[in-house]
Every structure is written in structure tokens, then in C-alpha cells.
Automatic annotation (TrEMBL):
A UniProt-annotated Pfam family: YjiS-like
InterPro entries reported in the protein's UniProt record: YjiS-like
Residue ranges of domain YjiS-like in the record: 7-40
Lineage of the species this protein comes from: Bacteria, Pseudomonadati, Pseudomonadota, Alphaproteobacteria, Hyphomicrobiales
Name the UniProt record assigns to this protein: Uncharacterized protein YjiS (DUF1127 family)
Source species, domain of life: Bacteria
Length: 50
């Protein structure tokens, strides 16, 4: 159980870090990456393995 809890925490941290970094970017920078602001949540979730 502790291993599962730790893995869940790591995934959540990865999601939050990715989401925060992407939200800091301008719309132009996101477009250069092929991402629109509306997709940031989806991209962050995918990066975290959700």
C-alpha cells in the first residue's frame, strides 16, 4: 500500500510540475510546441501517466 501511495504522489507531482511549467508559457510559446492553452491539462495528465 505504501508503494502505491508513493507512486500516486509521484504521478501527482509530475502532473503539477508539468501543468505549472506549461501555464507559465505564452500562447506563442505553446503554439511553437504544437499545444493550445486548452490542451495543457490533457498534456500534463499524459506526461504524468494518467
Amino acid at each position: 500500500m505504501a508503494v502505491n501511495l508513493y507512486a500516486s504522489y509521484k504521478n501527482w507531482r509530475k502532473y503539477r510540475e508539468t501543468y505549472s511549467e506549461l501555464m507559465r508559457l505564452s500562447n506563442r510559446e505553446l503554439t511553437d510546441l504544437g499545444i493550445v492553452r486548452a490542451d495543457v491539462n490533457r498534456v500534463a495528465r499524459q506526461a504524468a501517466g494518467y
